[in-house]
Design a protein that fits this description.
alpha+beta, five-stranded mixed beta sheet, three-stranded antiparallel beta sheet, 10 strands, globular
C-alpha cells in the first residue's frame, strides 16, 4: 500500500494552493502536520498545537530567518539590483527578523509608542476616518471596496501615528506593496523587481529626511519617539530606523486592509449576519475576531531551528527552516468546531493565532482590531449590506505568506433606500 504522506504533494508556490490552500492544509493536518516542502526544503507546520508549541519556544525556533521568505531576483538583473540597493541603507533586521537582545530593543521602542494613552488618542481619528469613508460610498452604487474603504482607513491611521503628511497616502501604499511583493511568491517579472527596488530607495530617502527633521524639532508623533536615545542603549541611526519603520508601515496597513476585504466577501452571502450587526453594532467586536481567524492576513511566519529538536514526531535538524502556518492552525478541527464556517458566536472565537503569540506577537494587533471594528460599526449605521458583484471572479494575491484580495467590486445597498 502506498504511503499517504509520500503520496501527498503540496507546492505552496503554486497558483492552485495560493488561491485556496484549505484542502491541502486539512490533508497535511491529518497526515503530515510537519511536512517538508519538496524542492524548497522548509517545513510547513500546520496544526494549532504544534504552531503554538513553536511560538512558545523562541529560543529553539528563532525569528532570524534570511532564507525561504522571499524569492530572489533573476540573475540577469542581479547586478542592476545591487547597484540600486547600494544607493540606500544596507539591510538591518528589525522586529520581523530578529531575536533578543536586538529584538528586545526594538520592541521596547514600539511599546513606548503603542501605550494605551497613544491608542486612546488614535481612536477618534480612526472613528472619524471610518465615518467619512463609509459616508462617501455610493449608496446605491458600485465601488471597489479595497480602494474606497479597506485600504485608506489603515493607511490614514498609520500616517497619523508616524506623523507623515496626508499627501503621502498613495506613496505609503506603493511602498508597502514594494516591501511585500516577493514574500512567499513566485519570482517577480524583471521590470517589477526593478520598480520595487527604486520604490524602496525613494522610501528610505524620504523617511530619512523626516527623521532628521524630528531630531531637530520633535513633534507629538511616533517618528519623534523613535529618534529619541534610549537611556541604556543610545539612539538608533537612520540606517536602522528606515528598516524598522518599513516593518511598522507594512504591519500598520496590510492586516486591516486584507481583513476588511475578506470580511466583506464573506458577509456578502450572509445577510443574516448583516441583520444581527444592524441590531447590535457592538457585535462588530466578535465578528472581527472570527474574521481574523478565517482571513489570517499574515498566513504564518518563518522560524529557524537552532538545535536538533523533535516536533510532532518529526526530527528537525539544526538550521532547518519552518513555516508556522497560522491560517492552517486557525482551521484546525481539533480546536474549532466546523472550522470553515463563519460563526462569531463560537465559544473560543479569540483562540486564533492570527497575530502569533509570545515575544514575537504582533504589537499592532490592538490597532488593527480597533480599525476593523470601527469600520463595521459605521457600516452597520449606514449600509444595509455590501454585495460582491462577481464572487467567482475573486482572486487572491499570488503569495502563501500574505493573503489578500487586491480588488473587490461591490454593490452598496443603503440602509434606508
Amino acid at each position: 500500500m502506498a504511503d499517504p504522506v509520500r503520496a501527498l504533494q503540496v507546492d505552496p508556490y503554486s497558483d492552485e494552493f495560493q488561491q485556496s490552500p484549505f484542502a491541502a492544509y486539512a490533508a497535511l493536518r491529518a497526515t503530515a502536520p510537519v511536512y517538508q516542502v519538496p524542492d524548497h526544503g522548509f517545513y510547513l507546520i500546520t496544526t494549532h498545537a504544534l504552531v503554538r508549541e513553536a511560538l512558545r519556544d523562541p529560543v529553539t525556533y528563532a525569528n532570524s530567518v534570511t532564507s525561504a521568505r522571499r524569492t530572489e531576483p533573476p540573475p540577469e538583473i542581479a547586478s542592476e539590483i545591487a547597484r540600486i540597493r547600494a544607493q540606500g541603507f544596507a539591510y538591518q533586521s528589525a522586529l520581523g527578523l530578529s531575536d533578543p537582545p536586538r529584538h528586545t530593543r526594538y520592541r521596547k521602542l514600539v511599546q513606548r509608542a503603542f501605550i494605551p494613552r497613544a491608542l486612546a488618542w488614535m481612536e477618534p481619528i480612526i472613528s472619524g476616518a471610518s465615518r467619512e469613508l463609509v459616508a462617501a460610498l455610493p449608496a446605491p452604487g458600485t465601488v471597489d471596496i479595497v480602494r474606497a474603504l479597506a485600504w485608506p482607513v489603515p493607511v490614514y491611521a498609520i500616517s497619523r501615528i508616524l506623523g507623515l503628511p496626508d499627501s503621502w497616502h498613495e506613496d505609503i501604499g506603493r511602498w508597502s506593496d514594494a516591501a511585500t511583493a516577493s514574500l512567499g511568491a513566485q519570482p517577480l517579472e524583471p521590470e517589477r523587481w526593478l520598480q520595487t527596488e527604486h520604490d524602496m530607495i525613494e522610501y528610505q530617502r524620504r523617511i530619512s529626511a523626516e527623521l532628521d527633521r524630528r531630531r531637530a524639532a520633535p513633534r507629538d508623533d511616533m517618528l519623534s519617539v523613535l529618534v529619541q536615545p534610549d537611556p541604556e542603549e543610545g539612539a538608533l541611526t537612520n540606517g536602522e530606523l528606515v528598516w524598522f519603520i518599513r516593518e511598522l508601515m507594512v504591519a500598520g496597513n496590510e492586516t486591516t486592509t486584507k481583513l476588511l476585504t475578506d470580511m466583506v466577501l464573506r458577509l456578502s452571502s450572509r445577510p443574516e449576519q448583516w441583520d444581527r450587526l444592524h441590531a447590535d453594532p457592538d457585535r462588530a467586536t466578535v465578528m472581527v475576531e472570527e474574521g481574523l481567524r478565517l482571513a489570517s492576513p499574515a498566513q504564518g511566519m518563518f522560524r529557524r531551528v537552532t538545535r536538533p529538536v523533535t516536533l510532532g514526531g518529526t526530527e528537525l535538524p539544526e538550521g532547518a527552516v519552518v513555516f508556522l502556518s497560522f491560517i492552517s492552525a486557525n482551521r484546525d478541527e481539533a480546536v474549532f468546531d466546523a472550522p470553515d464556517e463563519f460563526n462569531p458566536d463560537r465559544r473560543n472565537v479569540r483562540h486564533h493565532l492570527s497575530f502569533g503569540q509570545g515575544i514575537h506577537a504582533c504589537l499592532g494587533n490592538v490597532l488593527a482590531r480597533m480599525e476593523a471594528t470601527a469600520v463595521l460599526r459605521e457600516l452597520a449605521q449606514r449600509v444595509d449590506r455590501l454585495e460582491v458583484v462577481d464572487p467567482a471572479a475573486v482572486r487572491y494575491l499570488p503569495s502563501f505568506f500574505l493573503r489578500g484580495i487586491p480588488e473587490l467590486p461591490v454593490r452598496v445597498h443603503p440602509r434606508h433606500a
